[in-house]
TrEMBL record:
Record PANTHER family: KYNURENINASE (PTHR14084)
Similarity comment: family membership: Belongs to the kynureninase family.
Protein name (database record): Kynureninase
Protein role: Catalyzes the cleavage of L-kynurenine (L-Kyn) and L-3-hydroxykynurenine (L-3OHKyn) into anthranilic acid (AA) and 3-hydroxyanthranilic acid (3-OHAA), respectively.
């Protein structure tokens, strides 16, 4: 591309009209943090009001029998169908990402055969993933094997092959690296693990809703993802978990709550896990927290996740071109993969002044985020971001660095 004018790109964008459905899209604010917290949909405000008035206020506790009890599973199936490539009965909406990571990692290592005493994880995985792995390893007397990754790249089969073997109980990896946006080769790495007799848990927090996945086809074992990034569920919206059907009967999750019991209203003296995916639910589901999420999953279904991915690639590629033209001469480095096939939905740009640049941008209603060392992260949520927004935000970065 030689013409950096965003006008023709927005004019040719088949998803451009969907941007008007988001709160705040009609303001001059530039939002580069959709990979941390997505904008809300306008329709969600109406749906929340309807829920308070009609379901919660009108049906009261009858809502559990009528819809709420099954909502973690029915919405889980929708997330699986629209975003994950997962057949019904394998995805549930539950606790926070941290809690679901704990539950599924702990269940997997507890089910590992004797002698498999190591958890493999990269040293630049999201902090929560690393902290949870360290904690479970300490609880269960296991060893953490660290894959040392390039901060501008991510995990590969070549990097992991020497670390995975007969002692591996589980790999814990992210499909998209939170810092660099490196897009891991999920099917190849999963095959590598399976050839060594080990399962993999994939963190999909920075990929679901923006990068198509095919969990069933790729024979993924376990996955966890948050819902407030590209799935726009709102701050603190509940995470989802995926457990392949072939593993469900053999895994016993450690947080035994009443909603995962085979007969939750029996309230008997002992715990018997429910059949199927419900056994991975613990406590009362966050019904209100699922409402905005359901709206966004429906919109992604309307747009088509492949079309969302195509726009994501176009947006991040445009950001890279602007960075090359405007920011590289000012000393800015691209610390994300240059090949869009190896890149998720954000771009990280580094410069020694980026911390102060980000702080100043926030004061001017231009909202990226900052990641050490010296990184400005441009998170581009495809359905709510225009090419003009990208141009405006990066022009402001250029002007600040020029000053």
């Amino acid at each position: 591309m030689t013409d950096l004018n965003p006008g023709p790109l927005d004019a040719a964008d088949p998803l451009a009209a969907l941007r008007d459905r988001f709160v705040g899209a009609d303001t001059p604010l530039v939002y580069f943090d959709g990979n941390s917290l997505g904008r809300p949909l306008r329709v969600t405000a109406d749906h929340l009001a309807d829920f308070v008035r009609d379901e919660w206020g009108g049906r009261l506790i009858r809502g559990w029998d009528e819809r709420w009890y099954e909502l973690p599973l029915t919405l889980g199936d929708e997330i699986g169908r629209v975003c994950l490539g997962a057949a019904p009965g394998q995805t549930f909406v539950g606790d926070s990402t941290t809690v679901l990571l704990y539950k599924l990692i702990r269940a997997a290592v507890d089910a590992a055969p004797p002698g498999r005493t190591e958890i493999v994880i990269d040293d630049d995985n999201f902090p929560t993933d690393r902290y949870i792995v360290e904690g479970i390893a300490a609880e269960r007397g296991l060893t953490v094997r660290w894959a040392e990754v390039d901060r501008a790249s991510g995990v590969t089969t070549e990097l992991l092959a020497p670390l995975v073997g007969e002692q591996t109980a589980l790999l814990v990896l992210s499909q998209v690296a939170y810092r660099s946006a490196h897009l891991a080769d999920v099917p190849a790495i999963t095959r590598l693990a399976h050839d060594a007799g080990a399962p993999v848990l994939w963190d999909l927090c920075h990929s679901a809703g923006v990068v198509p996945t095919a969990l069933d086809e790729w024979e993924v074992d376990l996955a966890v993802g948050c819902t407030y990034k590209y799935l726009n569920g709102g701050p603190g919206s509940p995470a989802y978990g995926y457990v392949a059907e072939r593993h469900q009967d053999s895994l016993r999750q450690p947080v035994q709550g009443w909603m995962g019991h085979a007969d939750p209203f029996l309230m008997g003296p002992g715990y018997t896990p429910s059949a199927g995916i419900r056994r991975f639910i613990s406590g009362t589901p966050a019904v209100v927290g699922m409402l905005a999420l359901a709206d966004m999953v429906a919109l992604i279904d309307e747009a088509g996740v492949d079309a969302v991915r195509a726009k994501s690639v176009a947006l991040t590629s445009y950001a890279v071109e602007l960075a090359d033209a405007w920011l590289a001469p000012l000393g800015v480095q691209l610390t994300s993969p240059r090949d869009p096939a190896e890149r998720g939905g954000h771009v990280t740009l580094t410069h020694p002044r980026m911390r102060e640049v980000v702080a100043t941008l926030w004061e001017r209603d231009i909202i990226p985020d900052y990641r050490d060392p010296d990184g400005l992260r441009v998170g581009l949520s495809p359905l709510s971001t225009s090419f003009a927004e990208v141009e405006s935000g990066l022009a402001a970065v250029r002007d600040l660095l020029s000053d």
